[in-house]
């Protein structure tokens, strides 16, 4: 449990938790105090896959298990604790891969509608990325139009979901050594949906009952997400909506405005958010808002949809996952528009204490008590305007119980792979070479991806911020996505000035030279595929080994909550990255399975899992791993800088 007195390090969150209690609104922080997590389920020791159970097979507490106890620790069907823990673990992977995969499919469908001219309010915005994508997957360019090329790309990528044999197209983007390893181990994904379905089948009662084999399939399903569904979504979103570039904005509940219509867009599908960002600036809609007594329209984001419209439009962020109900508690939100993933059902109950309307927009995700207004990509602007009018019409119903916290922080976001490439090398020499060189010379110790959710079982935002500060203090460049990125943005770590204040001398010098923060915002949780692409680019630029597993790099999700986080972690481990999770770990009920993930995986994949709830200790594990990789590369010792005179230069040239 999180500290009851210190639920968050964010003052706006604390203020709204107290206001919620005064207003009688029951939010996630209060619910967490009364609902205790099941310790047996948390460690993966409960099986509910058939009607002979649920069967609980917990480890004895405080002592070693005897051989006789271990023999008896099975379910009714005889399933061992190892089988049960592995099944539960890979089912989480399947669920996360399904969530990201379904997102990717929806993006691909919208991309095809756009390419065919059937979604006239959207367009192909990034021609350069479109053409590069065509080259990557073998689509003919010739003298064809962008839309013709886009149709072929969309049709090729939509087949990735239902493909039954062969390999996913984007696997070819990985380093060659990594591709060969996947094939050798038999974990190269065939089709996105096939791997999810096969995982669910294998974990059905009475099917796959060898935890080694189950975890191989779990890796294959996870790779189908990272190098499949997620990567497809990110690439096509960039082509449709524009490749992100550095943009200034602000974050936290203080971005809400007392005299304007406040509409919060929350979820993960970017299409509605994209068009809302456009129609909210329509003079007709602004005049309509003024006719209702407002001075204008204020659009703000929540969760990963927030990251999408932040990166491309500079739309401010109201908060991350655990702040979604608290935005309503301000009393200043006319409507919260939601689609899929990470939407708390408690929103409707909280909204009943205020005037806020909860509007669902996706047929896959309705909430009892909410208003459903389905979004249609074919009539995007019309759908968005109808939703916006509903919010505007609700403005006169705003009561006097309004309190908007003053807290808001500046941030710079929008660091895609292409942007980083350009910032490091310029238009004509775009390259990761300067990054590699500064890792080799020791100014930058290594790179860390710190991603994932918020979890109410720890102090909100604290674990993220503490870990990241420890990493950058030790000259580790940090890449972030999702709610983790928002936590660090609120703490002021995403401006260039943060490098001088928080980073080590070496990292700070590089950040100052390039003009970047020490913590880079790469987008939504679906955009973790950007980190895979960046890692591959580092390998290809040379000097740091010939596989992702050779890089001085590590990953973490210190406040994870969602099944998607397990999938993300598994595809990073399967790609060769040491990955640390905090809060809790879902296989602790089986010593064998846990040790297999924490030790044997490194021999197989070059990457492995670790679990450490303490953020300083977890950062220490990451730095230790980075140093181990530096030593293996022979770059662990400081090199003396030598100023060459002309005689020394001539000697070099003669060699």
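Q: What amino acid sequence fits the structure above?
A:
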């Amino acid at each position: 449990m999180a500290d009851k007195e210190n639920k968050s390090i964010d003052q706006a969150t604390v203020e709204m938790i107290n206001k919620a209690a005064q207003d009688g609104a029951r939010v996630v922080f209060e619910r967490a105090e009364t609902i205790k997590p099941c310790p047996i389920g948390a460690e993966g020791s409960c099986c509910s896959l058939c009607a002979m159970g649920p069967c609980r097979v917990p480890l004895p507490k405080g002592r070693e298990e005897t051989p006789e106890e271990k023999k008896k620790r099975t379910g009714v069907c005889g399933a061992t604790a190892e089988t049960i823990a592995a099944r539960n673990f890979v089912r989480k992977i399947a669920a996360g891969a399904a969530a990201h995969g379904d997102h990717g499919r929806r993006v691909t469908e919208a991309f095809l509608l756009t390419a065919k001219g059937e979604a006239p309010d959207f367009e192909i915005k990034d021609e350069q990325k479109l053409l590069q994508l065509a080259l990557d997957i073998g689509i003919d360019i010739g003298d064809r139009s962008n839309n013709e090329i886009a149709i072929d790309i969309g049709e090729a990528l939509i087949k990735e979901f239902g493909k039954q044999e062969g390999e996913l197209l984007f696997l070819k983007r990985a380093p060659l050594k990594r591709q060969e390893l996947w094939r050798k181990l038999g974990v190269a994904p065939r089709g996105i949906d096939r791997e999810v379905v096969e995982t669910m089948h294998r974990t059905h009662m009475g099917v796959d009952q060898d935890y080694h084999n189950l975890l191989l399939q779990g890796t294959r399903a996870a790779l189908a997400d990272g190098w499949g569904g997620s990567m497809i979504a990110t690439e096509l979103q960039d082509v449709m909506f524009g490749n992100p570039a550095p943009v200034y904005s602000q974050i936290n509940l203080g971005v809400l405005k007392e005299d304007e219509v406040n509409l919060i867009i929350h979820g993960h599908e970017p299409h509605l958010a994209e068009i809302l960002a456009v129609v909210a600036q329509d003079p007709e809609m602004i005049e309509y808002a003024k006719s209702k007594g407002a001075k204008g329209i204020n659009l703000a984001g929540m969760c990963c949809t927030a990251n999408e419209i932040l990166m491309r439009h500079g739309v401010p962020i109201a908060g991350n996952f655990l702040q979604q109900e608290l935005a309503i508690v301000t009393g200043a939100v006319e409507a919260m528009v939601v689609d899929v993933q990470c939407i708390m059902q408690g929103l409707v109950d909280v909204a009943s204490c205020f005037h806020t309307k909860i509007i669902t927009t996706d047929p896959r995700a309705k909430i009892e008590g909410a208003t459903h207004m389905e979004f249609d990509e074919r009539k995007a602007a019309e759908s968005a305007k109808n939703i916006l009018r509903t919010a505007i019409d609700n403005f006169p119903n705003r009561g006097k119980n309004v309190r908007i916290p003053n807290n808001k922080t500046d941030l710079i976001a929008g660091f895609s792979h292409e942007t980083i490439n350009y910032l490091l090398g310029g238009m004509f020499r775009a390259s990761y070479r300067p990054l590699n060189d500064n890792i080799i010379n020791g100014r930058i110790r290594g790179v860390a991806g710190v991603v994932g959710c918020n979890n109410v079982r720890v102090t909100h935002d604290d674990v993220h911020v503490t870990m990241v500060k420890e990493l950058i203090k030790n000259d580790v460049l940090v890449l972030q996505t999702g709610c983790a990125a928002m936590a660090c943005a609120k703490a002021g770590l995403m401006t260039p000035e943060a490098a001088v204040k928080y980073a080590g001398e070496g990292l700070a010098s590089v950040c100052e030279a390039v003009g970047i923060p020490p913590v880079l915002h790469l987008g939504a949780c679906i955009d973790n595929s950007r980190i895979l692409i960046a890692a591959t680019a580092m390998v290809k630029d040379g000097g740091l080994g010939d596989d992702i597993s050779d890089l001085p790099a590590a990953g973490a999700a210190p406040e994870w909550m969602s099944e998607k986080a397990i999938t993300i972690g598994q595809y990073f481990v399967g790609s060769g990255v040491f990955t640390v999770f905090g809060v809790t770990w879902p296989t602790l009920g089986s010593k064998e399975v846990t040790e297999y993930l924490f030790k044997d995986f490194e021999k197989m994949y070059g990457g492995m899992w670790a679990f450490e709830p303490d953020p300083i200790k977890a950062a220490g594990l990451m730095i230790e791993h980075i140093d181990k990789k530096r030593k293996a590369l022979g770059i662990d010792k400081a090199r003396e800088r030598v100023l060459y005179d002309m005689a020394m230069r001539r000697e070099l040239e003669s060699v």
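Q: And what stands out in the fold?
A: The two ends are 65 Å apart (CA to CA).
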